[in-house]
Design brief:
By secondary structure, the chain is α/β, with parallel strands linked by helices. It folds into three domains: 2-9 and 29-366, Glycoside hydrolase, family 3, N-terminal domain (TIM Barrel), CATH 3.20.20; 387-575, Glycoside hydrolase family 3 C-terminal domain (Rossmann fold, 3-Layer(aba) Sandwich); 620-738, Sandwich (Immunoglobulin-like), CATH 2.60.40. 30% of the residues lie in helices and 19% in strands. It has 24 helices and 29 strands. The strands form seven sheets. It has a six-stranded mixed beta sheet, sandwiched between helices. Strands 1, 18, 19, 21 and 24 form a five-stranded mixed beta sheet that branches. The protein has a five-stranded parallel beta sheet with strand order 5-4-3-2-11. Helix 19 (435-442) packs across helix 23. The longest helix has 17 residues, at 127-143. It starts with a strand and ends in a 6-residue tail after the last strand. Bound molecules: 1-deoxynojirimycin (NOJ). 1-deoxynojirimycin (NOJ) binds at residues 76, 106, 150, 203, 282-283, 490.
Length: 745
């Protein structure tokens, strides 16, 4: 028997680890600051972007002169060992103070070897896998001259209309916090100065995912309890994991645009949490303070950004061109300016550029680390771990490898570009394996028939007849449905999350052909698919899984890999149910199907697939949770154990989940909240005792006065393989406690 001890992952009450003072760094930074002109200081805060060209991204002709004049501190979207070396040489040999440049890019889920989109990786519930993915991305990206990635996106998303839900870890702050920390570890490693680690960026600070109506960039209006208790928690975890940078978000929060939000950036992030990294604006975010309506001029916008603590101005060039008068007049203080410059120089020091500005720009290493067999193998493994089996009636899956004829239907099946998902850095679709190719490779001696069926969008049904013909000839049908990759990601919101175009109609025709049908979904957000759920026996959520997508999907469909992923986000039945998330409040009239309860007349109030849901080709049972005590003081710890047994015929993975409810409190509390999870692998008939430890931090919440407190009273613990498949136990807290907001554990 395996015994696993697991402390609930640290989330609340964390403080950024105090960095050991580095006197050499401070001496260097002080001496540079003393020498720098106003223009050179503003230059360090200026980030310019690269332009696409036939030979890859390049700076504009005039930018080389700006590097020489010390008027630029970093570039976004420039990479390549030889080219970054060339630009770096201009900075360190041609500029007065020889300060190296930082090269940044959106390396979100892989650089050349593309891994699953972050929402998919979150479905693995496997921090080690997520860390590995970020590690590989970092190795490849730094091999191409990059020092800084604009990832991880740690925004909580409760609205699947919002296109950027694809880039985060879903709806839950606890899972989000654990994966935020894992990604930071993956990118930054243990030594930021090593040539294969890079500065990570927790973004978008803050509450970017709470955009009204799911419309990207839209207004955010949140109670302080929800802002700090839900949306801030993954940022706090990233800060505690030592993330080197944070990006401000485009949105306002309660009336104050984040690029001008001194209370949250200088106040909470730096002040209360004690975090000391560099804050970068989002693209043109400083300039956008004008349309937000809080600045009348570029100069005013720049002053607001610097007051708020936004150090780096991404592309608006306001800091470089429009704030010098405000500094000279004292409207922006020397101290404010110098602190921003100090943080940029510290970041350069921490990644090792003052020791060796060329250490990331090594042509030989670039060749060695690109798309290696190891990287592809890791991408395939993480991809398989990210697949969620939503439904498997009559054990249709796995399909037999001895099938003679398999039909693969759907445009997305052959779309290797969509397999890469949104943000694919230097990923190339010709190197990616489509679902169709993966299935062909898995069944070399079978006949694999392909029909397009329907486009993802539009009203064309001309492919239906061929799809039905092909389905009739097959032993089984694999129908690939969903969204093209351009249908999620930045600004790509949808007012309806139902299957687009004629795809549901196609599914009806194919299903009527009478062969066993498996649907594989490709999508960057939850989809509302009640018809599929009712009529298609087997449904796999395969997201966008990256370069190795086709192999991973085939591994699962033909049983070489037993799926073990779980949903990191709720799947509604209909768009009209949004927002729908598992950690909701009970209300005074809890939801039910009848009477004056919180419900709908036309759709059940429940989700189609709840948060944490996911099946396996085997089955698991849970014992009732055993508690180390029935009553505890807030300062005690509570140990919870349960036995999980594989009761089926195959080895498989289960994600054991622990939820908690504070039954009665001075403010309303969610019906349940995730407080621990562990992905375990069990052979047939094997069992494991899983142990979770709860502490005051796990029981705490923000009260009416925004104190983080534990209150005496009853709590309910739930354990199981999903948020709605749970066994319960109860305990009492006898004495309360007030916790610091940023108390280290
Ligand atoms: C805008 C996006 O919001 C942000 O996430 C990204 O890092 C920047 N553009 C730079 O590409």
């Amino acid at each position: 028997m395996l015994v696993m001890a697991l402390a609930a992952a640290p989330v609340e009450g964390q403080q950024a680890p105090a960095r050991t003072p580095v006197p050499a760094m401070e001496r260097l930074v002080d001496s540079l600051l003393a020498l720098m002109t106003l223009e050179e200081r503003l230059g360090q805060l200026t980030q310019l972007s690269g332009q696409p060209s036939d030979s890859g991204p390049r700076v504009r002709a005039e930018d080389e002169a700006r590097i020489r004049a010390g008027r630029v501190g970093s570039f976004l979207g420039i990479y390549g060992a030889a080219y970054t070396r060339r630009l770096q040489r201009i900075a360190v040999q041609g500029s007065r103070l020889k300060i190296p440049l930082l090269f940044a890019y959106d390396v979100i889920h892989g650089f050349r070897t593309i891994f699953p989109v972050p929402l998919a990786e979150a479905a693995s519930w496997d921090p080690a896998a997520v860390e590995r993915s970020a590690r590989v991305a970092s190795v490849e990206a730094t091999g191409h001259g990059l020092h800084w990635t604009f990832a991880p996106m740690v925004d909580i998303a409760r609205d699947p209309r919002w296109g950027r839900i694809v880039e985060g870890a879903g709806e839950d702050p606890y899972l989000g916090a654990a994966l935020a920390a894992a990604r930071v570890r993956g990118f930054q490693g243990t030594d930021l100065a090593a040539p294969n680690t890079m500065l990570a960026t927790a973004k978008h600070f803050a509450a970017y995912g709470a955009a009204e109506g799911g419309r990207d960039y839209n207004t955010v209006d949140l109670s302080p309890q929800t802002l700090h208790g839900i949306y801030m928690r993954p940022f706090q975890a990233a800060a505690a994991a030592g993330v080197g940078s944070v990006m401000a978000s485009f949105n306002e929060v309660n009336g104050v645009p984040m690029h001008a939000n001194a209370d949250l950036i200088n106040g909470v992030l730096r002040g209360r949490w004690g975090w000391d990294g560099v804050v970068v604006s989002d693209w043109n975010g400083i300039q956008e303070l004008m349309p937000h309506g809080v600045a009348a001029s570029r100069a005013e916008a720049g002053a607001l950004g610097l007051h708020a603590g936004v150090d780096v101005d991404m592309v608006s060039e306001i800091y470089g061109k429009d704030v010098s008068a405000a500094v000279r007049s004292g409207q922006v203080t020397q101290h404010e300016l110098n602190e921003a410059v100090r943080r940029v120089l510290q970041a350069k020091y921490r990644v090792g550029l003052f020791q060796d500005p060329y250490r990331y720009s090594d042509v030989e290493r670039e060749r060695e680390v690109t798309l290696t067999a190891d990287h592809r193998a890791a991408a395939r493994d993480v991809a398989r771990r990210s697949i969620v089996l939503l439904k498997n009636q009559g054990k249709v899956l796995p399909l037999s490898k001895s099938s003679k004829t398999i039909a693969v239907i759907g445009t997305l099946a052959a779309d290797a570009g969509s397999a890469l998902g949104s943000w694919s850095a230097d990923g190339r679709k010709e190197e990616a394996v489509s679902v169709l190719d993966g299935i062909r490779r898995a069944l070399p001696s079978a006949q694999v028939l392909y029909a397009r069926g329907a486009e993802v969008e539009g009203t064309d049904t001309s492919g239906f007849a061929e799809a039905v013909r092909v389905a009739r000839r097959a032993d089984a049908v694999i129908l690939v449905l969903g969204e093209r990759r351009e249908m999620s990601g930045e600004a790509n919101n949808r007012a309806s999350i139902e299957l687009p175009g004629m795809q549901e109609e196609l599914a009806k025709r194919v299903q009527a052909a009478g062969r066993p049908v498996v649907v594989a979904l490709m999508n960057g957000r939850p989809l509302a698919i009640p018809w599929l759920d009712q009529h298609i026996p087997a449904i796999l959520e395969t997201w966008y899984l990256g370069t190795e997508m086709g192999y991973a999907v085939a591994d699962v469909i033909f049983g070489d890999y037993n799926p073990g992923g779980k949903l990191p986000v709720t799947f509604p039945r209909a768009t009209g149910q949004i927002p729908l998330y598992y950690n909701h409040k009970n209300t005074g009239r809890p939801s039910g199907e009848k009477g004056n309860t919180s419900k709908y007349l036309d759709v059940p109030w429940t989700p189609l697939y709840p948060f944490g849901h996911g099946l396996s080709y085997t089955t698991f049972t849970y014992s009732t949770p055993q508690l180390s005590r029935r009553s505890m003081r807030a300062t005690d710890t509570l140990v919870i154990q349960m036995v999980v047994t594989n009761t089926g015929q195959r080895a498989g993975d289960e994600v054991v989940q622990l939820y908690l409810r504070d039954d009665v409190a001075s403010v309303t509390r969610p019906v349940k909240e995730l407080r621990g999870f562990r992905r375990v692998t069990l052979r047939p008939r094997e069992h494991v005792t899983v142990t979770f430890t709860l502490r005051a931090d796990d029981l705490a919440f923000y009260d009416r006065r925004m104190n983080r407190v534990v209150e005496p009273g009853g709590f309910t613990v739930f354990v199981g393989g999903g948020s709605s498949e749970v066994k319960e136990a109860r305990f009492e807290v006898t004495t309360g406690a007030q916790l610091g907001d940023a108390r280290p554990r």
